């Protein structure tokens, strides 16, 4: 059992999901921060702003360094970006029922594939 906010030292998760190697987490978080700072300079339309927030959520939840995590920090980042742009905050899982969708469907929604 791990304490709150302890990095995952194993890669096998529940339901066949795997976690990123914990040694890669700091570099991936840094990459995400740099990417977000660059993208924030170029977004213009409200759709681009929403897309940035959705991609921020997807990228952070993919890093996912905590065993007990359910994406709360990623949701917080997504909603923070939406508040920064004075957008209505979204809760995609609640309103679209995405909790039962596959990862591929989520990637399509976010425009990644």
From TrEMBL:
Segments forming domain Fido:
1-113
Q: Which InterPro entries match?
A: Fido, Fido-like_dom_sf
- Put simply, this protein is called Fido domain-containing protein
